[in-house]
Amino acid sequence: MKKSMKVLVIATLATAVAFATPQKASAGQKFSVDRISPYGTSVTLNLAKSSERTEVELSDSNGKVVDTKTYYKGAKYGNFLSLKKNKAYTVRYRSVDGVGDPISGWSKKIGFVTLNVEAKQVGKSMKASYKIPKIKGVKKFKVLISKKEKSGFKKVTTVKPGKKVILSKCYGKAFGYTSYYVKFQPVFKKKVKASYANITGFRFTKGFF
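RESULT FIELD:
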């Protein structure tokens, strides 16, 4: 039996990314994309215990509004379900009163992608590849890597939708038998205030076929 190495895919992870409160929105409100489901079909928003009723608008990559929800004062989280995976979306919010009339302007848009990818081993080498699906509205992804789930990320390259990226090093050193985390930061074709970075992970282990 020949010794070989195989890459184990760690479930897609998502970490909170905080953004400063937009100037046009209520001064007492904060807003960020908190996480994308591992299957890329839902998004959770961090409302940071809203000080007012909050109206949130979800749009597709063409700018078409696909859903709007209103959350009560004090709500910490909101979400949109039944999204299409590997699609680009934007969200924005504004404060409204008890009857739904706006009491602030819209915030700037935050972009995110319901990215659903996983690492694959390149042959029997200690290299990992990701095939990025074609995603309308996204110019490219910045690719960053770390040995930690929530910190230490360093940019290694960029990849365009529809292309493959092969990774072989972390911090300039060849991969070893440990966990690695890869962050994909989308760069949108249309300007958005900020974008949420999707994170996946993998590790190599010794094994037999």
